[in-house]
From TrEMBL:
Main localization of the protein described in the UniProt heading: membrane
Keyword Iron: no
Positions of transmembrane segments: 17-43, 89-109, 121-141, 161-187, 199-219, 225-246, 253-272
Subcellular location: Cell membrane; Membrane
A Pfam family of this chain: TauE
InterPro entries in alphabetical order: TM_pro_TauE-like, TSUP/Inactive_protease-like
Similarity comment: family membership: Belongs to the 4-toluene sulfonate uptake permease (TSUP) (TC 2.A.102) family.
Membrane-topology annotation of the record: Multi-pass membrane protein
Species of origin: Photobacterium sanctipauli
Lineage: Bacteria, Pseudomonadati, Pseudomonadota, Gammaproteobacteria, Vibrionales
Protein's name in the database: Probable membrane transporter protein
GO CC annotations, alphabetized: plasma membrane
Domain of life: Bacteria
Length: 273
């Protein structure tokens, strides 16, 4: 603990602390507003601003996401923006897969023979998921603006939820990306949850999965706890503001903000490569 305090208050200058706090505030606002902002926004910031490699960035982002989502999840639960039945279905499939995939990545990264390869694979996966999420949100926005009614979701939500959860768990465990850009579309498009409840539900699910990833990556030495704590502190400025804004924003507005955040993050990630 003494070393951690030294990292936070001695190694970092006041200016560096302030910058990290501001980054944290932006992350918290984006996360609370759209469910997007966990891995999507944090990982590019960690790579560009703090020079982390992909796996270390994923591990640190998992720590930040899990801690930030505690505040955001509580806020959405209180606001009754969570669809608990669908949340339980997704977690049934996601939890075991997330645990397994993070274990594999941590073990392979610890081996110098595979370290470079795993970092490259993780970076490609992150870009692929961001691109998929961006395309998905654009399609949803067009449907929303054209007045096309959402197609009634048919079939067994439990089966779809568990299978979709397994896929989300694998991606979140390997890339740290998935809360707003993967789980949210899954809840909204596949399970038929309305967009605002999808945001709250995706944050609750991502809290659990990010927590699992954070524990696994940290135990393998693949996370920067000092940087994570400062960014989390800053997020507590942004999350409460975002939850208030959610109540007054239209569905189209939610999609447009999500698209903007994902686009900026994708651009930052490509620059980081």
């Amino acid at each position: 603990m003494e070393t951690l305090y030294q990292d936070l208050f001695i190694t970092l200058t006041l200016n560096e602390l302030f910058i990290r706090l501001m980054f944290g505030a932006v992350i918290g606002f984006c996360l609370g507003l759209t469910g997007v902002g966990g891995g999507v926004l944090i990982i590019p910031i960690l790579q560009l601003a703090f020079g982390m490699n992909p796996v270390l960035a994923v591990g640190t982002a998992s720590v930040i996401s899990s801690l930030v989502k505690v505040n955001a999840a509580i806020s959405h639960v209180v606001a009754k923006n969570v669809s608990w039945k669908e949340v339980s279905y997704v977690l049934m499939g996601a939890v075991p897969v997330t645990f397994a995939i993070t274990e594999v990545i941590v073990r392979l990264t610890a081996n110098p023979k595979y370290n470079s390869m795993i970092n490259s694979v993780v970076e490609v996966l992150i870009i692929s998921i961001m691109s998929f999420a961006l395309a998905s949100m654009i399609i949803k926005l067009r449907k929303s603006k054209s007045g096309v009614e959402a197609t009634e979701v048919k079939g067994d939500n439990k089966v779809k939820g568990i299978s979709s959860g397994a896929a989300c768990g694998a991606i979140i465990g390997s890339t740290g990306v998935g809360g707003g850009v993967l789980i949210l579309p899954t809840l909204n498009s596949i399970l038929g949850v309305d967009i605002k409840r999808s945001v709250g539900s995706s944050i609750v699910i991502a809290l659990v999965l990010s927590g699992i990833s954070a524990i696994k990556y940290s135990s393998g030495g693949q996370s920067d706890i000092a940087t994570a704590l400062v960014l989390v502190a800053g997020s507590f400025i942004g999350v409460p503001l975002a939850v208030r804004v959610v109540k007054n924003i239209t569905d189209s507005g939610m999609y447009m903000v999500s698209i903007a955040i994902i686009s900026i993050s994708l651009f930052m990630t490509l620059i980081g490569m």
